[in-house]
Every structure is written in C-alpha cells, then in structure tokens.
Design goal:
Blueprint lengths: L22 E6 L3 H9 L3 E6 L2 E6 L1 H9 L3 E5 L2 H4 L2 H4 L4 H14 L4 E8 L5 E7 L11 E6 L7 H15 L5 H9 L1 E5 L4 H5 L31 H11 L3 E8 L2 E6 L17 H12 L3 H4 L7 E3 H4 L6 H9 L2 E8 L9 H17 L5 E7 L9 E4 L5 E3 L6 E4 L4 E8 L6 E8 L5 E2 L2 E3 L12 E3 H12 L5 H7 L6 E3 H12 L4
GO molecular function: metallocarboxypeptidase activity; zinc ion binding
InterPro entries: CarboxyPept-like_regulatory, CARBOXYPEPT_ZN_1, CARBOXYPEPT_ZN_2, Dockerin_dom_sf, Peptidase_M14, Peptidase_M14_domain
Keywords: Glycoprotein, Hydrolase, Metal-binding, Zinc
Length: 504
C-alpha cells in the first residue's frame, strides 16, 4: 500500500504559532517502516542517522508518540540558553546594511533586489553579481539560497563571505574575474528572516519552507497558491529567471544531498533522477573539496535524498522537475547553530567548494536558439534524447545551458509554432561547454509537416514549377535551415517569400 495523504506538520499553524513551544527531539530505535509512519503522521523529520531521527513537534505530538510506544527524547534549546551564540552573527538589520553597502561600493557588478517581504514584513534580499548587471546576456544563471530554516545560520555567514570575495577580488583575481564575467550569479543569504530573528526553524506562521514547494508525487500543482509567502516570492522570482545550477544551504548534518527527496513509494530506499550520474558528480565536486564533509559519516560526503529520508515539498526537487535547474541541498555543519568562532574554519572548508560548484554551470552544451526568419530569441525546450529531462532557454536572450557529463549526445530542440529539430552526435568534453546554436524554422499554418521533405534537387524543381524562376544554388543552400540535407515544404515557402518580398 502506498500512502497518499500528507498532514501539516503543525496543527493550526496558520492561525497561532509560538516558536518557543516547538520541541527538538530525537526518536530512537526506528525502522524504515517507522519513518514512513511518522511522515504520514506529519512529524517533521529533519535528519536520520541509522535508527535515530531528529524531529520537530509540539508537546501534544510528543505525548501522542510516546503513547504509541516511540522512544522520544527532548533536546534542550541551547540557542536560547546561550545568548553568546547569537550575538556575533549578523542581525537582519546588519545583513541588510552590508548588502546595501556592497551594492554601493560595486555598482558596476552588483544589483540588490528585494523580491518581496516576509510574513512579518522583512525584505527578502537577492544579490545579483555579474559584469553587466543591467543586461540580459548569453550566460548561465547560478543561484545560492540559504537559511530556509531560521535556526541554521551558517549559510548566511558563508553567503556574505562569498559575496565579499566575488566583489572585492573582481578585477584582481583572474579566476574570480572570470566567474563574474561569465556567469550571472544570484545569492540570497537569508530566505527566512522571521524565523532567523526568533531562532526558529519555521516562518512566522509555523510553516517549514523546505516542505512547502510543489511536489511531483504529493502536490503536483506548480502554482504559488496556499504556500508560505516566502515560498511564493522565491517561486515567482524563479519563474521570471532561468537558473541552470543552484544549491540551498542548511546545517544539522555534514553532507551534500541530491534529488530526489520525494518518491511515489514512501518505502523506497532510493529515488534517482534521469540525471543520476550528473548529480553524483556535482555532489562529489562540492564534497570532495571539503575535507571534513568528504571524510565524515556519509560515504564520500554525499547521499541521495530519499535514501537518507523522504521529504515532500522540497525546493531542490521542485527546481529540477519544473524549472530544469540542477539543485542540491548542502548541509554545512553537524551543529545547527555553532559558536560564531567556528565560522572562519567553516568558510575555509567551503570556499573552494562554493566556487568550483559554480563553475559547473559553464560545462556541458550551450547555445542560443533563434527564429530562423527574424533572428529573434525563442522560448524553447532542449532535450537530450537519451535523458528524460528538459531544460529551457532564457527567452530574453534565447540562451540555454544543458549540464552534461562528457559523452556524445543527440539533442532535440522544440518550441511552440516551430519545427522540432534534432542535432545528432554532439560531442561534450570535460572542459568548457560545447557551443551549439540553433535557428528554428517557423511552422506555416496548413502546411504539410516537415517530415515530408525532399532532396535539395527536388526542392529546386518544385520551386521553379511554382514560380517560373530559376532558384540559384546559394538560395537553396541557405534554405536548408535545420542543416539536415533536405528542404521541407515549409522551408521552401519561406524561400519563396524572401524572393517575392526580400524585405519581409
């Protein structure tokens, strides 16, 4: 039997939520069946280590679980007991001031955006860093988002450090300069400012932001309706952009977690995407450069989400399924809120990983997709024939960036109102992306499908019969717009239009 019901983690959270009522617990001696049952009960599991799970719940759920025979231990709230843990970290206002100061100091490469306000009215800041921040260019977009859970602040501090490196070392460090010149970088240091200010995992209405996105198995509605306001803002931002690669940062473990987190079978021990080998390589790229992570309690510092524990409504699955963006979840430290004195070492552990992971956006195959007649960029879909996963162009520039491991691929391009085109045997290496631009041929209403195509010689004869005009070689050569060695009737029609009206 496969369960299909999901209960909210916190009852009546939409009306009343006091973060101080929430309990962090350890549940011991669990089987995989127990984890399935707890998930179906709406218990917010936040990590699993062998037979022990970390979970969050209100006191009434604690009593319920104990009455059912579960061994549950409450973990004291050390954050609120030790104010020194909080004071050295950036406050929300200090974070805001630093981001604004950075934009002012580096106006040539920085733009700071408020993509919307939190439940309690705090701005959700996104810093854009690129060499031409006001121009849409043929560049991959990479995003880092941190602290969806307000009690996991390490990623906020590391995000600020990364922003400093990218801005302060631009123009002096060749590698940093190349990153900023070649990539459109977006960094959100704090997605849950309300939770952060109250040292709570949840937002101000008691919602877990990383359980609130559309889910292909349990909530397949790719809309913002009935979602937390912070999730709505991130989704709306993502709909307007074309991220290629992303990561979200957490604490509470030391591992890179890759999709899928969710599976139609809640008992599944693994849930692989069509890009499984690529995700393993992406995850290893990050973990292998972080020695404590790589040599920690997880094999090579990586794990499949469902293999670790199932979650529903996670951001990484949503990015991959609906946006075509490769995203992983990075757990930066076993302790959720460590002393601030640990931040320099944590930065040293993650600096190279954060930069090298970002560079993956420049690999695979890339190009610009345009209308063959007008030359205008298109909103198109790019499919690797052997991998059941689509990516999409940025319609503003028409550029696409398909991350791939080295190999030879057949790649299909499709767009509404245009003939589908397939380019065979595209060779992808281990360095910079293979460039593959495509000019797509518009469909003509009522015309015969492109599959009825003729050899070049036959097409010339057909056009001469229709027009009484000799079609010279350069014209019929250029008419083979999709480079398949043939001219379809739709291509012939466009050649005829050019002959009759060269300015059209």
């Amino acid at each position: 039997m496969i369960f299909q019901i999901f209960f909210p983690v916190i009852s009546q959270a939409e009306t009343v939520f006091n973060p101080h009522d929430l309990l962090e617990t350890r549940i011991n001696n669990l089987t995989r069946e127990d984890l399935v049952r707890l998930t179906q009960m709406g218990i917010d599991i936040d990590g699993v280590w062998e037979t022990t799970a970390r979970a969050y719940m209100l006191p009434d759920r604690l009593k319920e679980l104990r009455s059912l025979g579960y061994e549950v231990t409450v973990i004291p709230d050390r954050i609120r007991r030790d104010s020194d843990l909080i004071q050295a970290y950036h406050s929300y206002s200090e974070l805001t001031s630093e981001l604004k100061a950075t934009e002012t100091a580096h106006p040539d490469i920085c733009r700071l955006y408020n993509i919307g306000n939190s439940e309690q009215g705090r701005e959700l800041w996104f810093m854009k860093i690129t060499d031409n921040p006001d121009i849409e260019e043929d560049e991959p977009e990479v995003k880092y988002i941190s602290t969806m859970h307000g009690d996991e602040p390490v990623g906020t501090e590391l995000s600020l450090n990364l922003i400093r490196v990218l801005t302060d070392e631009y123009g002096t460090d060749p590698r940093i300069t190349a990153l900023v010149n070649e990539i459109e970088i977006w960094i959100m240091p704090l997605m849950n400012p309300d939770g952060y200010m109250s040292q709570s995992r949840y937002n101000a209405k008691g919602r877990d932001l990383n359980r609130s996105f559309p889910d292909q198995n349990y909530d397949p509605n790719n809309t913002v309706a009935d979602r937390p306001i912070e999730t709505q803002h991130v989704m709306n931002w993502a709909f307007a952009h074309s991220s290629v690669l992303s990561a979200n940062f957490h604490t509470g473990a030391l591992v890179v977690n890759y999709p899928y987190d969710s599976d139609p079978d809640p008992r599944a021990n693994y849930s692989a995407t069509p890009d499984e080998p690529l995700f393993i390589e992406l995850s290893l790229t990050y973990a292998s450069l972080n020695e404590p992570m790589y040599n920690g309690s997880f094999d090579r510092g990586i794990i499949n989400g469902a293999e670790w524990y199932h979650i529903r409504g996670g951001m990484q699955d949503w990015n991959y399924i609906w946006l075509g963006c490769n995203e992983v979840t990075i757990e930066l430290n076993d302790i959720k809120w460590p002393p601030y004195s640990d931040i320099p070492d944590l930065w040293n552990d993650n600096r190279e990983s954060m930069l090298t992971y970002m560079e993956w956006s420049l690999r695979g195959v890339r190009g610009v997709i345009t209308d063959s007649v007008t030359g205008q960029p298109l909103n198109a879909t790019v499919t690797v024939v052997s991998i059941a996963h689509d990516v999409f162009t940025d319609p503003d520039a028409g550029d696409y960036h398909r991350l791939l491991l080295p190999g030879t691929y057949d790649i299909r391009f499709s767009a509404d109102g245009y003939q589908t085109q397939t380019v065979q045997e595209v060779i992808v290496g281990s360095g910079n992306a293979t460039q593959l631009n495509v000019a797509m041929v518009p469909q003509v209403p009522g015309d015969i499908n492109h599959s009825n195509s003729a050899d070049l010689t036959d097409a010339i004869v057909t056009m001469k019969l229709l027009t009484g005009t000799d079609i010279v070689f350069p014209v019929h050569k250029d008419a083979d717009l999709n480079n398949d060695g043939k001219i379809g009737l739709q291509e012939a029609v466009y050649v005829l239009r050019k002959i009759s009206d060269p300015e059209n």
